[in-house]
Amino acid sequence: MGDIDTFEGLLAAVAVEDGLRVTDPASGEVLGYAPDRTVEDLRRAVAVAKAAQPGWEALGHEERSRLLHVAADAVEHSAAALAELISREQGKPLNGPGSRFEAGGVAAWLRAAADTPLEPERVGESAVLRYRAVGVVGAIGPWNWPALIACWQFAGALRMGNTVVLKPSEYTPLSVLALGEVVGRVLPEGVLTVLSGGRELGAAVVADRGFGKLMFTGSTRTGRAIVAASAGNLPRLTLELGGNDPGIVLPDADPAAIAEDLFWGAFINTGQTCAALKRLYVHESLHDEVVEALRAVVERTPMGPGVEEGSLLGPLTTREQFGIVDGLVEKAKAAGARIVIGGEPDRDAPGNFYPATLVTGVAGDAGLVVEEQFGPALPILPYRDLDDVIGQANALETGLGASVWSADVERAKEVSGRIEAGTVWINKHGTVHPMVPFGGVKGSGYGLEFGQEGLKAVAVPQIITT
Description:
alpha/beta; single chain; 2 domains; Aldehyde Dehydrogenase, Chain A, domain 1; 41% helix
């Protein structure tokens, strides 16, 4: 099978000769095949997880936390191999906020889940509130941060005494299977199971009555379908859905000082992040300066295959996503928008490379503004009136994240309080921390992850009254 701490060893441990074809988004070449599991495979996995759950919960918080630390050690031992697999499968570069960052984040979130205290709470004079395991948790992950978001789903769930059956995206199953292999080697059998498969398998996860909790990260449309399809079982739900995050630059901001952070807020993972900055509103007095400062950052940020050490931006993961971004930019062009930089991809190239693109002169109701582009194309819109721009920021159905940029932090806090979003960052965008709760409002879903609130979300509250 090969060593688990090499790229070849990880790939050999999880790939099969035929099944779900996985291609390298930088070249279009076949990377390998993942097992295409069936509904019957899922039923067996749920049965095994259900049988393993009482014993796992009975180990107690201290022992489960110890094993999560051992799992984090194992991830760190295999981090270089896992990072290479993520780069080759998903496309993000090794460096910058890329696949090495993602692999390191997995270990960090495992340790945070292990170390976050969650003590029983006294309620009134004679009652205690405590949290117990739900049972078996079903999770469906996305393709943009496949290993890290998988860890977000299972780390807290395991800490609280649940067992987990996780289905990764059919576009990026190998890295999640590899993570499951690495972590699973230090856990009891049946505690964590990763099953790769297509949409039929995902639908079966949602409908399976063996799950007491479902976790999903993906589009708002699919999230709504999950709510409807799971109604017969009434599982608890955590839904981290689509985002179209606004950023508002106030007139006292320093364009040169904020340009780098604005850029990475928008273009991290080549724009393929739910909580990335996707529409930027700049006060008219600063608009041109901010645009030029951002152009300078784009010009000096190299794009290329993820496994090349010099790359800081990579390809889009799927050809379908390439087409979505390309189509939105072309429609903006046709409507008279100005392409400041980018916007001219090589559509005949084998990889899914779309250049980092800045767009101005775009209408507030253009598709590039009101639809989630999920790629490296940022519309920049001037505004004059603060009340009006806050209205524009709140006008869409999404409410995952937002940001306010200002030299006056107290003023920025006042503006932040008027924005409808689960998280509002000040002078940064999209940064998450394993101890800080994260979740959306409106069409961006509900439920929190990370920290104590994240642990409570994968548990059942119980009141003991004496």
